[in-house]
Design brief:
This protein has 14 helices and 9 strands. It has 308 residues and is of the alpha/beta class. It folds into 3 domains: 121 residues, 3-Layer(aba) Sandwich (Rossmann fold), CATH 3.40.50; 65 residues; 99 residues, Glutaredoxin (3-Layer(aba) Sandwich). The radius of gyration is 21 Å and the shape is globular.
């Protein structure tokens, strides 16, 4: 089967161009449409396997476009790509049969991961079936079911169940959210909205050590940007990504509740205040001493290049 043809629908050109750049670099055939009306015209002239669409667009919005696709081209896979999902909108989209959801702003790794799942759908396999064997082995499923049965009748059980599920699986992909929703007899949209709202939940695999950097006002004013850049440059990953050896991952959050310690970084459950680029690497090196060695070697190379 040839690589699927993908249509990116958004009223912001920068979003279309960003998605095109990421997906084309992986060999996908990609086109863009500035809004739902243009998307309908393009889909009338050409065949597409996947459509990634924003929800809030003038004239023809995302839900209207999804309804049109489901009615006229039911074999086309649909993924939502938006920065402002409401619980009601996500619920409606799920009921209409979307495959997955990509948050704005998205990282290349998130976009590619969701695209891979959606591609499996176009090949005749449901996304959750495509990776269940790799991501969700039977032992994990059994333990998750046990936790759901134990907690589901308690008031406010959803958050404790999600916390335990993340401990068991490591993160909360769609297949896990679906199992929790079914086990607790609640809408998938309700589970998804809680996972999306709280920063301590993640839908992407994390490294053995998760580094959270606060980008709130107090931290930003006191130089957290420089700290984050040093961490990214040293680990060679961006926010939302995990190192190749799965040892570290980086998250950016709006607030960690420790403004008096700004700028702040958290590694796993430990909070570190008054961070500088040098101090941040020292803290990270507790989990991998080669971090400091690597940073020192790069710094020496840079100095040598400047002197030359």
């Amino acid at each position: 089967m040839a690589e699927p043809k993908i249509l990116i629908v958004d009223d912001e050109l920068i979003v279309i161009k960003s998605a095109e750049r990421v997906l084309k670099s992986e060999g996908y055939s990609v086109e863009g449409a500035l809004g739902g009306r243009e998307a309908i015209l393009k889909m009338g002239q050409n065949s597409f396997d996947l459509v990634f669409t924003d929800l809030k667009m003038p004239e023809v919005d995302g839900i209207t476009l999804i309804r049109w696709i489901k009615k006229t081209k039911p074999d086309v896979g649909i993924v939502i790509i938006t920065g402002y999902p409401s619980q009601d909108t996500i619920k409606e989209a799920l009921e209409l049969g979307i495959i997955d959801y990509v948050p704005k702003p998205f990282t290349p790794s998130v976009l590619l991961d969701v695209t891979e799942r959606a591609v499996e759908w176009t090949k005749g396999k449901k996304p959750e079936e495509a990776k269940t064997a790799e991501e969700f082995p039977p032992a994990m499923a059994a333990e998750l079911d046990r936790v759901i049965a134990q907690l589901k009748k308690k008031p406010g059980a959803l958050i404790p169940v999600l916390q335990r599920a993340q401990e068991i699986v490591g993160y909360l992909p769609p297949v896990v959210q679906k199992r929790i929703a079914k086990g607790m007899n609640i809408p998938e949209a309700e589970v998804h909205s809680v996972v999306s709202f709280y920063s301590f939940f993640t839908m992407k695999p994390r490294g053995d050590h998760n580094i959270r950097v606060c980008l709130g006002t107090a931290c930003y004013v006191k130089g957290i940007e420089g700290v984050l850049k040093k961490i990214q440059d040293t680990l060679k990953i961006n926010v939302g990504e995990t190192t190749e050896d799965r040892k570290f991952s980086i998250e950016a959050v709006r607030c960690l509740g420790a403004c008096g310690l700004a700028p702040v970084m958290v590694i796993d459950q430990e909070t570190y205040g008054a961070m500088s680029p040098k101090k941040a690497l020292e803290k990270i090196s507790q989990f991998d001493p080669t971090i400091i060695e690597s940073a020192s070697a790069e710094q020496a190379e840079e100095m040598a290049e400047k002197e030359a």
